[in-house]
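Quick review question:
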């Protein structure tokens, strides 16, 4: 999974100047390891079958990437910022993010003492602000909320985005983002709008963000080269007999809009940090077939409420242990009422400042009926769904930054 807020250990290749403080930096990260899953769906002539799976998996704690960052000092406190960042799979050499060459981030902007404005393909404010209230800083992509439905793990980027973030003032930062849909004759179609804020005071960090997306099957889930038009379900496969994709939410591709509200905090206590967060996600206006397919004839709204509590602790300066619990409750049309329970444990051991070995264990239990109208199956994020209401995964890997 491609997510993480920063890359450590960047190497400055050029820092010579036409202007003071100008630089061009090449940086990267490699993350690869082995995943074991006890139960995944496989296709069969008579329907889905159960199988265990062991495979190499790249980008689970942090997305493998390379990037270029340029900063030019324009004088008077003004600077230009350019970022071009590409994600790729260590085991196949393929680009990630649906095949986008610069799929992780690509933007240009200006900054000064007031704030920074950037234009291009970017992370939304949910990742910028609220990810630090989750297990995101140290947990694997597998520990994300079900289907990363609130994007607190940064699975989905935003195209055509204008983003503004203020500098911190008495510990407070504000942010605004608007993504233009670009549709002739309909300025709101495929648009995204977000506002958010953070507050830092000593050991306390708090964040709150609201994001509204129109036609999410296209604007959120369909903004990569591998995605299809509105007649395609870009959220995931809803098949009742074959291998599914994101069954918790894939039945809601016909939503006219998707709204996300997230609030959370972290608090440092000695060598440990406590994390708590809550999100509310709404797929509204179901039945809009101009937005996406509606194979189950849904109308109305589907709502998901998710709560997470985590704790991480540095046993030594080089060894971290973390664990937590995520609970999601979904309600939707036709009596859909799935619940997902997910405990998780992660360790991270640093061999040096730039190389570490990590591992994670995740278990998920599902109850009720999911978005396909069937008995809910366990579906750990970024892993093929289970054939049953339970799923267990283990992953161990090595990561290097440069």
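Suggested answer, residue by residue:
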């Amino acid at each position: 999974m491609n997510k993480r807020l920063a890359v450590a250990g960047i190497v400055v290749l050029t820092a010579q100047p036409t202007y003071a403080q100008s630089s061009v930096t090449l940086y990267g990260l490699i993350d690869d390891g082995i995943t074991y899953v006890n139960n995944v769906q496989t296709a069969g002539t008579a329907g889905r079958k159960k199988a265990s799976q062991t495979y190499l998996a790249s980008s689970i704690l942090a997305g493998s990437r390379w990037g270029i960052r340029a900063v030019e000092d324009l004088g008077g406190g003004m600077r230009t910022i350019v970022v071009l960042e590409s994600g790729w799979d260590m085991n196949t050499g393929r680009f990630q993010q649906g095949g986008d060459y610069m799929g992780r981030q690509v933007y240009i902007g200006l900054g000064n003492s007031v704030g920074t404005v950037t234009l291009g393909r970017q992370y939304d404010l949910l990742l910028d602000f609220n990810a630090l209230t989750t297990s995101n800083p140290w947990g694997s992509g597998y520990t994300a909320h079900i289907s990363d439905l609130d994007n607190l793990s940064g699975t989905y980027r935003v195209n055509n985005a204008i983003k503004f973030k203020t500098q911190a003032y008495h510990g407070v930062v504000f942010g605004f983002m608007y993504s233009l849909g670009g549709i002739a004759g309909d300025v709101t179609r495929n648009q995204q709008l977000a506002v958010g804020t953070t507050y830092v005071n000593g050991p306390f960090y708090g964040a709150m963000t609201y994001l509204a997306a129109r036609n999410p099957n296209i604007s959120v889930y369909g903004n990569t080269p591998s995605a299809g038009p509105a007649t395609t379900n870009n959220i995931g496969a809803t098949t009742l007999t074959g291998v599914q994709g994101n069954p918790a939410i894939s039945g809601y591709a016909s939503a006219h809009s998707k709204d996300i509200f997230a609030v959370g905090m972290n608090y440092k206590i000695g060598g440990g940090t406590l994390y708590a967060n809550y999100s509310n996600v709404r797929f509204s206006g179901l039945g809009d077939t101009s937005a996406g397919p509606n194979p189950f004839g849904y109308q109305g709204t589907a709502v998901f409420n998710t709560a997470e509590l985590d704790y991480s602790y540095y046993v030594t300066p080089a060894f971290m242990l973390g664990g937590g619990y995520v609970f999601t409750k979904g309600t939707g049309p036709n009596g859909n009422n799935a619940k997902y329970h997910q405990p998780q444990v992660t360790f991270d051991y640093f061999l040096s400042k730039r190389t570490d070995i990590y591992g994670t264990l995740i278990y998920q239990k599902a109850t009720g009926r999911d978005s396909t109208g069937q008995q809910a199956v366990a579906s750990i994020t970024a892993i093929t769904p289970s054939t049953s209401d339970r799923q267990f995964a283990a992953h161990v890997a090595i990561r290097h930054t440069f």
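Why it works: The chain is about 0% helix and 50% strand. The helical segments are 125-130, 216-219.
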